[in-house]
């Protein structure tokens, strides 16, 4: 605008000076007019050019300003947009990872058959058979194998027309739990043998090891935290984490789940080990509980029973056994909690059948476990009737136990805590009036006497 005004002022000044000088035009009037018109035309054209140039400059300036403004807005918005893009890129792999994880986790196999748990009447011993199907194929798991001086477990398996045992478990190496295991391995097609890893000097234990080696059967020692999925059955190992040689206390203990129905097995584990299970990571709740240590007062503590919260409890014991199993204290505890109680000494073989949601319990014989209020406590039997118990031991048939007064050096090694050296001492120090007299043997104290009694193998027969 300033340039245009200056140009018009300069043109007017020129015309004014030309007219004011009084000089006459050298050309004609027409030429002068034509020249003036041409000059005005040029001036107008120049003015238009200047205006267009200024407008162009203004437009360019505005465009530059708008471009700068847009750039600033883009700069202020770009971090969020970049963050959104990064977030989208980050979220996509997470979704893919979750999807891959879900795909990697195998779906739990649907239950297509019932499971039956047979708590076998094995006398003063222990043996439980589990039967179910996996994709139409029979699966059989045997937990413990009765006592060494009987073939009742073998006979029961034959009565079921069983030819194959997929897993044979010896919860611990006592003769009343692995007594017939060597026969099971030699007479049936056994896929795997699971044991605690604790050793024994008894011939029974040696026979089991020999049968495992000769048959080529696979061998495993599960530890706390180990989980096995066998078709629709899940087996969770509760105990032990390690073994130190304490055979009873370090019994293999399992929670076995078939759909929504759980079974709990603890072998001869005692209250201290039960407490350790409660402090472990596993949930011990179960519908069916096998009472530990044949229903002895050493096991099934009040805290453990409350934590498991079973609907039914089952123990394995011999009828009129010399150890007072099951303990009257434990019977009372179970019954006062409103838990159904079954025992092989009263009911014979007990069967639990489940479809994974519900279960039924059937027994070989009818009967009721005598309530604790109708019996003397186990401690009373041990203290006030010690002599009567000794007489009962003496009257026990030698075919059902190892007579410490007449058994051979090999036979007495069936007794827990009696190895080759102690077996020689045992024979040399005869006769014995009761099992308690085994304290005469160097290294056998009250605690080991308790273990020997709990095993149920040693007796006095004459």
Walk me through what this model shows.
The N terminus is likely disordered. It is elongated, with a radius of gyration of 48 Å. With 462 residues, it is an alpha/beta fold. Helix 7 links the parallel strand 10 and strand 11. It is 42% helix and 18% strand. It starts with a helix and ends with a strand. The relative contact order is 0.08. The protein has an eight-stranded mixed β-sheet with strand order 6-5-4-3-2-1-14-15, covered by helices on one side. It has a seven-stranded mixed β-sheet with strand order 7-8-9-10-11-12-13. The chain folds into two domains: 264 residues, Ribonuclease Z/Hydroxyacylglutathione hydrolase-like (Metallo-beta-lactamase, Chain A, 4-Layer Sandwich); 75 residues, Orthogonal Bundle (DNA polymerase, domain 1). The protein contains 15 helices and 17 strands. Helix 1 runs antiparallel to helix 2 and helix 5 runs parallel beside helix 6. Pfam families: HHH_3 (PF12836), Lactamase_B (PF00753). This is Competence protein ComEC. It comes from Halobacillus andaensis. One of its GO terms (biological process) is DNA repair. One of its GO terms (molecular function) is DNA binding.
Keywords:
Metallo-beta-lactamase, Chain A, RuvA_2-like, Competence protein ComEC, elongated, seven-stranded mixed β-sheet, eight-stranded mixed β-sheet, 462 residues, 2 domains, Metallo-B-lactamas, alpha/beta, 15 helices, DNA polymerase, domain 1
| CATH architecture grouping of the largest domain | 4-Layer Sandwich
Overall SS class: alpha/beta
- Secondary structure: helix percent: 40-55%
Low-confidence stretches: 1-10, 12-29, 76-103, 371-399
Q: How many β strands by DSSP?
A: 17
Largest sheet: 8 strands, mixed
Principal-axes shape call: elongated
Strand order of the largest sheet: 6-5-4-3-2-1-14-15
Tell me the name of the CATH class of the largest domain. Alpha Beta
Rg is: 48 Å
Rounded mean pLDDT score: 80
Query: Between the first and last Cα atoms, what is the distance in angstroms?
Result: 140 Å
Domain Metallo-beta-lactamase: 126-319
GO molecular function: DNA binding
Organism: Halobacillus andaensis
Pfam families: HHH_3, Lactamase_B
